[in-house]
Amidohydrolase family protein (Ensifer oleiphilus), 496 residues
Amino acid sequence: MIDLKDLKLGARADSRTLLTAQWVLGHRDGSHRLIPNGEVVIEGGSLLYVGPRFEGEVARRIDFGAAMISPGLIDLDALSDLDTTILAVDHQPGWAKGRVWPRSYVERGPYEMYSQEELAFQKRFSFAQLLLNGITTAAPIASLFYREWAETVEEFAAASDAAGDLGLRVYLSPAYRSGGMVLEAPGQLEAVFDEARGLQGLTDAIGFIRDHDGRHGGLVRGLLAPDRVETCTETLLRRTADAARDLDCSIRLHAAQGTMEVDTVRRLHGKTAPEWMASLGFLSSRLIAPHATQATATDLKLYADNGVSIVHCPMVSARGGSTLNSFRSVKERGINIAMGTDTTPPDMLMNLLIGLITCRVVEGDTAAVSCADLFDAATLGGAKALGRSDLGRLEAGARADIAVFDLMDHHMAPAIDPITTLVVGGSGRVTKTVFVDGRLSMHEGKVAGFDMDAARLQAQKQFDGLIAKYPERSWAHPPISEIFPPSYPLEDLRHE
């Protein structure tokens, strides 16, 4: 147990605090630098000093021992609901498993499958999980497949409050769309549009950003989030770009990420999604674009020429049989790469390991990418995508967003170079402590003002309730036992 010297969970220290450990990942001259037995001094919400030895006065010294003090991780596709993509891991094809709306469900009228209280809870629960994994800055993402149409201002006002209460830095606003995919027949997916509804969603998102940007001491910032490129119209994208310039905020839009999108956009516009966006003047350095797993060479050149940042989510992509092609080739084009988790568990270290492996497999070259390349993407790449030179690094003047990772975990012994150890170890469970803006947000599995044990039970109950509704929104409405059969047959234990 680390003695935090009177620091309280959920609070910022009232005077200078010095942190030290076997390793500190500092930053100098544009890159991370490992400092053996380094020291970090927090004053208020910022970093006063990062280096080998601090000569000034401090109120307390906290020694984390065999650990690495790191910049907090940045997750720009951070799951903020109870993940439904895990239902598709072993249950295919997606069109038969309630992944998209069948026509029969649309004709009965789509409805919200969660109450507003449940929606608010799942944001808070997900934010706490991010902190447990060393993530200090997040751009939340949630599925709209089980929603009535789009996200609501009410649930995001609750998300804003959750970020402030738990101490997580967030970039957010309600996601909106002008269309959705409807299953007209087995395997036949068609885009159906309601542009007025999409434009109203944009109006709501603009209002949310104006009301919430800068709340909780700057922890909450605005980000426009049109849902997926195939669900957007030209008017919606043009107006989104105009709004982003007016609000001086970024846009996140999922593009070049799957065959359904590629086929739909080509059918609608005769181009790939990046080509279509480029023709609208939508590509810019404001755009953050997960996942790029289906991006062509032409698409990547358009991203590079226009300063677009990609969000790489290796685990969810690889689980579905795809990957960025490849991390090295994208980086060599000069495209900024940030990282995202986009699924359960929201484990960034595990994602870095999968990103390392998939790049080397695609390239057939162990020298194609290093552990440091992936760690850079999860810190400096995310900060660059957000236009924040004060995040993703530990140096004087930066915000005090810090994750402390245990290097003595029994499951990843022995430790070698700390970055290699953490990436190859591949688990956020080694996160010991998290500070956000100088505030102690998580320590040894505890999150300020939040009972994770009780929340875990509530999350399971809520998720089970959602699954029970899947027959209503699955083709031909089969029972749950057919939609999601168990991995192995269930043994009948009844006596004859």
